[in-house]
Design brief:
The chain is an all-alpha fold and about 90 residues long. α1 packs antiparallel against α2. The chain is rod-shaped and about 105 Å long.
Amino acid sequence: MTLYIDPVSTVLLAVSCAVGYFVYKHTRQGLVGKGDIVGAIVCATAVLTALVLIVGGAHSEAKVPAPAGIGNTVTTPPAATPSGVAAR
C-alpha cells in the first residue's frame, strides 16, 4: 500500500523531529547524562503544531463527494375535484 504524503508536510515533520532531537541532546549534557525524552517529544509536538498553523497544513482542498441522487421522483397532477364539491 502506498501512502502519499505532501512534501510540505514531510518538511514540517522533519523540522520538528530535528528540533526534538536537539532538545534531547541538549538535556543529555547534564551531570546525570540522561536526556529528557518527554520534554523533547513535547517540544517537537509544539513546533510541529506551530508550523502547521503558520504554513497552513494541507494545501489541497478537501474533496467533498457529490451528493447522491434523490432517486426517481414521480410527480402527478393534482386530483380532480368533483363538480359538486368546492375546493378548500
